[in-house]
Amino acid sequence: MKIKKTHRPARTASTPAPASEPGALRRAVTEAQADAPRRDRPAGQGAGNRGAKPTRPAKEGGRRPTHDAAPRATGSQQTGARPTGARQTDPRQTGRPESGSGPQPAGTQRLFFALKVPANLVGPLREAQRKLRGNWRRVDADQLHVTLAYLPAVPADRVDDLKRLGVTLMQDLPPMQVSLRGTGYYPNEGSPRVWFVKVEAEGLPELAQALRDGIHALGLETDEQPFKGHITLARKKGPAPRVPPLTFTHGWQAGGAVLYRSILRKTGPIHETASSFRFRAPLPTTPDPLAPDLLAPDSAHDTPPAEPAVTDPQ
């Protein structure tokens, strides 16, 4: 019995790459930039001038609010240029709108793109939160999420641009298999302020980076720290002991992402859904080498040839 060989056609120049590939995400960013209203596009960021350095929109009075400016490095601390439109924050503070200081600029909103944690994972995470003691403030179950990009001050008339960006980047992505890993603290040394659980998913870092690139292309601010997938479980408000490391084996299939609006309250932030986006592409399939259709005999080629006649010399 022969195994039928299958041949995959080679990708030609006319065959589009899957949208989950980094290059396709970059192209989607360019499309989203081109779709943005020209009146809102910073100087030098036209669709035909991709290499030009964007100019930030001017603030009232010609100065940026002091609470929204990133600390400037001096001397040996200057390790490189700060990306345009990026706001310097701590890696584990990404997506934590309540950590910002100063009043919210008039006419702006706090927004962030994120994956929502499904209800079937709330139980294991709440069980872990019960181990906390002291001045830890637990994150409520309906607030658990994986932040992809955080925008501290978005003018109300730019929210639709972010919605279009989300649709452009995510409509051709397949669902992502997200896995929980171990817990950690930020900062890890000294007195930590945040307790989190790490998450991993193929294509998640590329999506987070593409979102940030698209946000910068629209002339809006976001954080500049490398993406580190995590779910914040608690924040410390005073002296509190650490919980020994925990490891999770749970996970979920993320079928989309959400653009959240964060409203600050004394009891903590309230996250409202501004828009949601579905990953509409089908999951990639891997052919099974032991599939019956690959092992079926081919009548045209697998029939053994007739043996030649033998004459008995006598």
UniProtKB/TrEMBL annotation:
<dbReference type="Pfam" id="PF13563">
    <property type="entry name" value="2_5_RNA_ligase2"/>
</dbReference>
<feature type="compositionally biased region" description="Low complexity">
    <location>
        <begin position="11"/>
        <end position="22"/>
    </location>
</feature>
<feature type="active site" description="Proton donor">
    <location>
        <position position="145"/>
    </location>
</feature>
<dbReference type="InterPro" id="IPR009097">
    <property type="entry name" value="Cyclic_Pdiesterase"/>
</dbReference>
<dbReference type="InterPro" id="IPR004175">
    <property type="entry name" value="RNA_CPDase"/>
</dbReference>
<protein>
    <recommendedName>
        <fullName>RNA 2',3'-cyclic phosphodiesterase</fullName>
        <ecNumber>3.1.4.58</ecNumber>
    </recommendedName>
</protein>
<feature type="short sequence motif" description="HXTX 1">
    <location>
        <begin position="145"/>
        <end position="148"/>
    </location>
</feature>
<feature type="compositionally biased region" description="Basic and acidic residues">
    <location>
        <begin position="57"/>
        <end position="70"/>
    </location>
</feature>
<feature type="region of interest" description="Disordered">
    <location>
        <begin position="278"/>
        <end position="314"/>
    </location>
</feature>
<dbReference type="GO" id="GO:0016874">
    <property type="term" value="F:ligase activity"/>
</dbReference>
<comment type="function">
    <text>Hydrolyzes RNA 2',3'-cyclic phosphodiester to an RNA 2'-phosphomonoester.</text>
</comment>
<dbReference type="GO" id="GO:0008664">
    <property type="term" value="F:RNA 2',3'-cyclic 3'-phosphodiesterase activity"/>
</dbReference>
<keyword id="KW-0378">Hydrolase</keyword>
<comment type="similarity">
    <text>Belongs to the 2H phosphoesterase superfamily. ThpR family.</text>
</comment>
<feature type="short sequence motif" description="HXTX 2">
    <location>
        <begin position="230"/>
        <end position="233"/>
    </location>
</feature>
<keyword id="KW-0436">Ligase</keyword>
<feature type="active site" description="Proton acceptor">
    <location>
        <position position="230"/>
    </location>
</feature>
<dbReference type="GO" id="GO:0004113">
    <property type="term" value="F:2',3'-cyclic-nucleotide 3'-phosphodiesterase activity"/>
</dbReference>
<feature type="compositionally biased region" description="Basic residues">
    <location>
        <begin position="1"/>
        <end position="10"/>
    </location>
</feature>
<feature type="region of interest" description="Disordered">
    <location>
        <begin position="1"/>
        <end position="107"/>
    </location>
</feature>
